[in-house]
Amino acid sequence: MDIYQVIKEPHITEKANLQKSESNQVSFKVHRGANKIEIRQAVEALLKTKVLDVRTMNVRGKRRRMGKNVGRRPHWKKAVVKLAPGENIEFFEGM
């Protein structure tokens, strides 16, 4: 898989901000077929940082209603990446 397809976007929430400040971890939405090795290689190549650990989880899409119509948001995969001490990502620094 191409490294530009692995990482879709950063996942920015209150919990992600706490993880960034306390334990130097950042969260990303990633391709559902990507594994930990591909995610590690993509983060190290694209963002030029040293990765210590990658944890992944599949997030189920929530059910949503619009009147009588019931639908579902798409399922997606989240990766929590632990960076080496002293490493940072410029995108997350302004958050």
Tally of structural domains: 1
CATH C-level: Alpha Beta
User: Taking all residues together, what is the mean pLDDT?
Assistant: 93
Just name the CATH architecture.
2-Layer Sandwich
Q: Helicity, in percent?
A: 25-40%
- CATH-level-4 superfamily name: RRM (RNA recognition motif) domain
Number of helices: 4
Summarize the structure in short.
This protein is an alpha+beta fold. The chain is built from 4 helices and 6 strands. The N and C termini lie far apart (30 Å).
Q: How does this structure look, described?
A:
This protein has a single domain (3-64, 73-85), classed as RRM (RNA recognition motif) domain (Alpha-Beta Plaits, 2-Layer Sandwich), CATH 3.30.70.330. Helices cover 32% and strands 37% of the residues. It has helices at 3-6, 14-23, 36-47, 90-93; strands spanning 7-10, 25-30, 51-59, 63-66, 69-72, 76-83. The strands form two sheets. It has a four-stranded antiparallel beta sheet with strand order 1-2-6-3. It has a two-stranded antiparallel ribbon with strand order 4-5. A hairpin with a 2-residue loop joins strand 4 (63-66) and strand 5 (69-72). The mean pLDDT is 93.
Question: Which terms summarize this structure?
Answer:
4 helices; 95 residues; 32% helix; two-stranded antiparallel ribbon; alpha+beta; Alpha-Beta Plaits; globular; 4-stranded antiparallel beta sheet
